[in-house]
Amino acid sequence: xxxxxxxxxxxxxxxxxxxxxxxxxxxYEVTPTNAAQGKxxxxxxxxGYDFLSLSRLVGHPSRVIVxxxxxxxxxxxxxxxxxxxxxxxxxxxxTIAMEFAQRQLQRRLSPITGKGRLSTDRxxxxxxxxxxIDDLAARYPERVYVKTVGWSYEKRIIKTxxxxxxxxxxxxxxxxxxxxxxxxxxxxxxxxxxxxxxxxEQFDQNAxxxxxxxxxxxxxxxxxxxxxxxxxxxxRIFRKTRQPYKYLGQTCYGADPNRxxxxxxxxxxxxxxxxxxxxxxxxxxxxxxxxxxxxxxxSLADRGVMYLTIHSFGNYLLYPWGWTNDLPETWMDLDExxxxxxxxxxxxxxTVYAVGSSTNVLYIAAGASDDYAFYAGFNISITMExxxxxxxxxxxxASKIDEFVTETWIGIRAMAEKVIEKY
Length: 423
Ligand code: ARG
Ligand code: ZN
What we know:
The structure is a single chain. This protein is α/β, with parallel strands linked by helices. It has two domains: 3-101, 2-Layer Sandwich (Alpha-Beta Plaits), CATH 3.30.70.340; 116-228 and 284-422, Zn peptidases (Aminopeptidase, 3-Layer(aba) Sandwich), CATH 3.40.630. Helix content is 39%, strand content 19%. The chain has 13 helices and 14 strands. The chain has helices at 3-19, 35-45, 71-81, 92-109, 126-139, 187-201, 203-206, 223-228, 288-300, 331-349, 358-361, 369-376, 398-422, and strands at 26-31, 50-53, 62-66, 84-89, 144-151, 157-163, 173-179, 213-218, 244-247, 250-253, 304-312, 316-319, 354-357, 380-386. An eight-stranded mixed beta sheet has the order 5-6-8-7-11-14-12-13, with helices on both faces. A hairpin with an 8-residue loop joins strand 2 (50-53) and strand 3 (62-66). Helix 1 packs antiparallel against helix 4. The chain is globular. The structure holds arginine (ARG) and zinc ion. Arginine is lined by residues 258, 311, 318, 322, 358, 362, 365, 368, 370-371, 383, 385. The active site is at 385 (proton donor/acceptor). Its cofactor is Zn(2+).
């Protein structure tokens, strides 16, 4: 490491230590061995425990943050209920501080960009991503265009990029993809950028995907939250939007955009408390960001064949419903497309994605965008939860980005091929 590098690292560490973010917080991995334990863990997520990942499948590990104040009752519960567990990290504050300092260092070494191709060797800001898609539209005016579709609560611009094959045939079928619903899931915009690169820059290799379909892509649904997570260690694992809500005399920020859609809104797996991570919002579509996605969905619905939303983490390919454990009538079509993605990834890299309905494979959670898109008319609607990395799971080191996004593309390509064959 260079002298400047070392200085940056130490300075970063001092700065964040002063901030005291998550000092003494722990991360536990807990694995339910029967359905009752699974239910119990899910209950904790509604009671102020911040789950970094949560699965309802018996034998599948979940990760939860435990604050110093929660520690003794949490440990007692584990003991009483005989829940299998492992301490993954005994000071989240220190670990995030380290990750933050390393990132600062990397940013020094690779300056702000937004023109030309974006590499997969670091994460980009909302501004960089926006500049990049604008630049693509300028470079490929016959095939690519960018449209402003709205503004976030803090008035950041929200744009879509539409990629076509340039034949100008109107009313083609549509694949609508988005990313960065959740602020801390940084691999999501990285994966979406890679898809954009493939379709726009590597057009010759992917022209088959654009023959009868246009791709409409919204890389950053939640720019306020995403920018917030880049401000410091305390903010790094923030999930929601940034609209402030008052609760018992304090201010908590944001609603969970993936609980804010008006379809069985706030019925299950969401919270009415503003300070909880899965806060559904005071009413459906209380967040300007979800209004943007809703309006896009309706404007595309009659051409929209597949909706794909990119989250992290856990390696899941999920389809409706997420508000009930019933399956939609056409679940076999959904399953066929999702499996095509999972199988392609497993064949290429060995990574195994769990495929199934959101409620059955992950947990019940109503008011999400996937259910809404399906209800609005998309034949296929899939939430893809990518691979995790770093101690929280939301922080794969930059050196892993390339591996994760190329793998994701293999799955997305396979799902698109299946959709094109079927519809
Ligand atoms: N991790 C995503 C979330 O919690 C999964 C959403 C799955 N879809 C659903 N309708 N529950 O928001
Ligand atoms: Zn998410």
